Automatic annotation (TrEMBL), chain A:
Belongs to the 5'-nucleotidase family. This is Sulfur-oxidizing protein SoxB. Residues 397-535 form the 5'-Nucleotidase C-terminal domain. The keyword Nucleotide-binding applies. The lineage of its organism: Bacteria, Pseudomonadati, Pseudomonadota, Alphaproteobacteria, Rhodobacterales. It comes from Jhaorihella thermophila.
From TrEMBL, chain B:
Residues 34-136 form the Ig-like SoxY domain. InterPro entries: SoxY, SoxY_sf, Sulphur_oxidation_SoxY. This is Sulfur-oxidizing protein SoxY. It comes from the Bacteria.
């Protein structure tokens, strides 16, 4: 099999190539000159099968800014392991030069300065160029979409996913799995998935009533590629009915279903599969644990937790590929399949620099067509930001600080709660806040902003519960989101403690007083999983707030104390 | 105001239930085990107990067990106010010794399956099931 050294050679070559622009060479022109499409796509075709992985696009059709997390803590066996390494430590681990294009793409430091040099990332017309270039070298390459595709923008929300289906159909994937798609409601998901010209997969999508595999989604699909028989097994997000509103898709049950995964791998092998690929929306830590327990998987294309890693992670004989989010990266994996098994693997995480990779004209036109009916709505300027607005990170981001502030002020609440989702692009200081930008961080089918009363005791239960979803030392008990964002209240979290003991020092910020377990507080929040939640839509709340302020500035958030990392 | 008072109360009540449920001493669980085994030694393994890692709905959690060679299997929810869930007896003509059922779990806890074998020995399997209030998935 392939040694770790072979992988290192591949990624080092890429790093050296891309690192050539060097530190301080930040003028946009210089950066562009130093970086070419050919360099980004350079890949010596290897073996006989190519896999192209995109995941967690979250309906981002156009180029965006996306700041990677500064804080991404791992617990248990994953403490200090990728993807729980950020910033300078991440660059050291992979030999990435400070200030280089890969530093900008993969780490958070100097995001604004580097962003001004290297420009936006993503855009499905650029992704199309990358996919087409790979197909030019390997016409029968498999394009696999890890899901969270039909969710996350104004146009996707208002077309119930149709814009993304239209655009992805043009990109011609071979298979897809799912997560947020189900929040369109089971009827809509069934209608869209039923008409896809490619496979809709999920070995863990079960019928809730009978606890049997759902007839609406196949567990796996077979492909003949490069003379080899390739099985792609789908793994949908295991915790959909817990992390998202169960009442929106009551016919379905999910779960990790590890034993069924093993059964599907065995079944595929028995039918002659020479390469077994799992197209997963498990999240990285769950995939790593699964790789160590299910035998016979060659490659896991990992999605959900939005991690981007420039090297595969090897667990036994399984290689895990993490391809980022929001259209920012495309992974290319070339595999040598011979004598009925995987003999070697070569990988490249391709950062989609929007100013470097030329848009595919046909795809640009198709994207514009989806956006045309909504253009005026999308482009309306609501206000301007003086601060960098970003979301990713375990505890807080400036976008959520702004959303919490909007909830506190517009809904006259003591405390605000904003869900710890990982989607949502960034916005640069000085940029206009358009309606599209607000939808990019709030769009969902259950966006009602509730206002209710909670006791201090219940608030602690909420924080402990979400904290355990993130910091349970066993990945199978994690749900893959970040910590719930809190406005108006500070707290201390010890991530090394068990559930019930992590949260302390809860403080009402406006008075500086400790939260009283017996007292009721007015809490405003959004994205409740409870049926019948009432209130204005969160994007309207944020829009009203930004419009009233005109120019927003988000001060640094120091109200969460993290220990035990 | 967007939650009705009734819904708010319901949320509060759920929370209270989560918070104040007495954590039963192992005595009651031990009693249930002893009641089934008569105090005989229980060896881990030989029984497959399947349950979700995180319950999608604590009120109806699908579990199943497979206990080849068992004459009876007792299911115990160690964190429920009343831990004994079910005892399934298998006659000599049973084609296999497996069963699927749905159980109610009050909170995060271990679910235990103890199998009485034909020779009078006991085997067991244990699975931790998390019951959570949910939300906030990435």
């Amino acid at each position: 099999m392939i040694s770790r050294r072979d992988f290192l050679q591949v990624s080092m070559a890429a790093a050296a190539l891309l690192g050539s622009s060097g530190f301080g060479n930040w003028a946009r022109l210089a950066a562009r000159q130093a970086l070419t499409q050919d360099q980004l796509l350079a890949f010596e075709t290897f073996g006989n099968v190519s896999l192209i992985h995109v995941t967690d696009i979250h309906a981002q059709l156009k180029p965006i800014w996306f700041r990677e997390p500064e804080v991404n803590l791992g617990v248990g066996e994953n403490r200090g392991q990728v993807p729980h390494i950020t910033g300078a430590a991440f660059r050291r681990l992979y030999g990435i030069e400070d200030g280089s294009p890969l530093a900008y793409a993969l780490t958070h430091d100097d995001f604004v300065a580097l962003g001004r040099a290297y420009g936006r990332v993503g855009g499905l017309d650029r992704v199309a160029t990358v996919v087409n270039a790979i197909r030019a070298e390997r016409p029968d390459a498999l394009l696999l979409d890890g899901g969270d595709t039909w969710h996350g923008s104004y146009t996707c929300h208002h077309t119930a996913g149709q814009d993304m289906v239209n655009v992805m159909n043009a990109l011609k994937p071979d298979a897809m799995t799912f997560h947020w798609e189900f929040t369109l409601g089971s009827e809509r998901v069934r209608a869209l998935a039923g008409e896809l010209p490619y496979a809709a997969l999920g070995q863990n999508i079960f019928d809730a009533e009978w606890d049997e595999p759902s007839e609406d989604f196949k567990p796996y699909a077979f492909f003949e590629r490069g003379g080899a028989k390739v099985a792609v097994i789908g793994q949908a997000f295991p915790y959909m009915p817990i992390a998202n509103p169960r009442w929106m898709f009551p016919e379905y049950s999910f779960g990790i279903r590890e034993s069924n995964m093993q059964a599907m791998v065995d079944e595929a092998r028995a039918q002659g599969a020479e390469l077994v690929v799992v197209l997963s929306h498990n999240g990285f830590d769950v995939d790593r644990k699964m790789a160590g327990r299910v035998q016979g998987i060659d490659v896991i294309l990992s999605g959900h937790t939005h991690d981007a890693l420039p090297e595969p992670v090897q667990v036994g004989q399984t290689y895990i590929i993490a391809s980022g989010s929001n259209g920012k990266f495309v992974s290319r994996v070339d595999v040598d399949v011979r004598d009925g098994r995987m003999m070697g693997l070569k990988h490249k995480l391709i950062p989609v620099f929007a100013d470097v990779i030329a848009p595919d004209p046909a795809m640009s036109a198709l994207i514009d067509e989806q956006r045309a009916p909504f253009r005026a709505q999308l482009e309306e300027v609501i206000g301007r930001t003086e601060s960098l607005l970003y979301r990713r990170g375990n505890f807080n981001g400036t976008w959520d600080d702004l959303i919490c502030q909007a909830l506190l002020e517009e809904r006259e609440a003591d405390i605000a709660l904003s869900p710890g989702v990982r989607w949502g692009p960034s916005l640069m200081p000085g940029e206009d806040i358009t309606r599209e930008a607000i939808f990019n961080v709030t769009a969902m089918t259950y966006g009602q902003a509730y206002r209710t009363e909670m006791t201090g005791e219940f608030l602690k239960i909420v924080l402990e519960d979400v904290g355990d979803n993130l910091f349970n030392p066993d990945p199978y008990y994690q749900q893959g989101g970040d910590m719930v964002r809190v406005g108006g209240m500070g707290f201390r979290i010890d991530i090394s403690k068990p559930q019930g003991q992590r949260i302390s020092e809860m403080t009402l910020l406006k008075t500086g007083e400790p939260i009283d377990p017996a007292k009721s507080y007015v809490v405003a929040g959004w994205a409740s999983v409870n049926k019948g939640t009432e209130g204005p839509m969160i994007w309207d709340v944020v829009e009203r707030h930004v419009r009233r302020k005109g120019v927003v500035e988000v001060p640094p958030n120091r109200s969460v104390k993290v220990v035990g990392a | 105001m967007e939650f009705t008072r009734r819904e708010t109360l319901a949320i509060g009540a759920g929370a209270a239930a989560l918070a104040v449920l007495p954590i039963r001493g192992m005595a009651s669980v031990d009693e249930e085990i002893a009641d089934f085994t008569g105090g005989a030694e229980v060896v881990e393994g030989g029984v497959t107990l399947t349950a979700p890692e995180i319950a999608e709905n604590g009120n109806t959690v699908p579990i199943s067990f497979d206990a080849p060679g068992a004459v009876a299997v007792r299911i115990i929810a160690t964190g429920n106010p009343s831990p004994k869930v079910a005892t399934v007896n298998f006659g000599p003509l049973a084609g296999n010794q497996s069963c699927a059922l749905r159980i109610r779990l009050a909170r995060t806890q271990d679910v235990l399956a103890i199998a009485k074998m034909a020779d009078g020995s006991f085997k067991s399997a244990k699975v931790a099931v998390k019951v959570t209030i949910g939300g906030c998935g990435g």
